[in-house]
UniProtKB/TrEMBL annotation:
This is Uncharacterized protein. InterPro entries: RCC1/BLIP-II (IPR009091). It comes from Polarella glacialis (Dinoflagellate). It comes from the Eukaryota.
Length: 213
């Protein structure tokens, strides 16, 4: 499906109805004030000028945000989607998540780390990684695809400036130009074969599913 933002702040949608192509259920909320729309495989989330969020599409993929509606009425500055969930950063640096619980929609296990200081969130097929203002990284979602970063936790406590995700892994650039990877090994989560080349001088990482970072 597609969602187009017009100059008057309204949104037009089309495509597969149950994946966001039909936005009639929230049509009155999409007539004005939309500044940005974020979509993934099954749903859309739109930020309005007043900092609120409107969602539609497949309910269990985040099209239904009623469980966190009270947290999405104001202050949202960015929304990131992975395949079946969304994560929204608020102006106070906190994060709100919804969608498929086991694939990033439920961040309760790391909730205490997401109450402030988050400056960037990156998602992949089933997990999220958030960079905090102190350069540390917080991860959640499906453990196999990067939701569990405990194996490299000591390398993610400071100095992270960018995180990039592909389908099933993450790669993070540190301020010293080194790279840290985690997630499914054969999708790029294991970079040991080129580790000697990733210790310094890296300025950008890009990903293309299903290859590694």
């Amino acid at each position: 499906a597609f969602a187009a933002v017009k100059t008057d702040g309204s949104v037009v949608t089309w495509g597969r109805a149950d994946r966001g192509g039909n936005s009639s259920a929230v049509a009155p909320l999409l007539t004005e004030g939309i500044v940005q729309v974020f979509g993934h495989q099954g749903a859309f989330a739109a930020i309005k000028a007043n900092g609120s969020v409107v969602t539609w599409g497949r309910a269990d993929f985040g099209g239904d945000s009623s469980a966190v509606a009270a947290l999405l009425t104001e202050g949202i500055v960015h929304v990131c989607g992975n395949c079946p969930a969304f994560a929204a950063i608020k102006a106070n640096g906190s994060v709100v998540t919804w969608g498929k619980a086991g694939l990033g929609g439920d961040s309760s296990a790391v909730a205490a780390l997401l109450t402030d200081g988050v400056v960037q969130v990156c998602g992949n097929q089933g997990a999220f990684a958030a960079i905090k203002a102190d350069g540390s990284v917080v991860t959640w979602g499906h453990s196999d695809v990067g939701g569990d970063s405990s194996a490299v936790a000591a390398l993610l406590t400071e100095g992270i400036v960018q995180v990039c995700g592909n389908n099933n892994a993450f790669a993070a650039i540190k301020a010293d130009g080194s790279v840290v990877t985690w997630g499914m090994a054969h999708f790029g989560g294991d970079s040991s074969a080129v580790a000697a080349l990733l210790t310094e001088g890296i300025v950008q990482v890009s990903a293309k599913p299903p290859a590694g970072a």
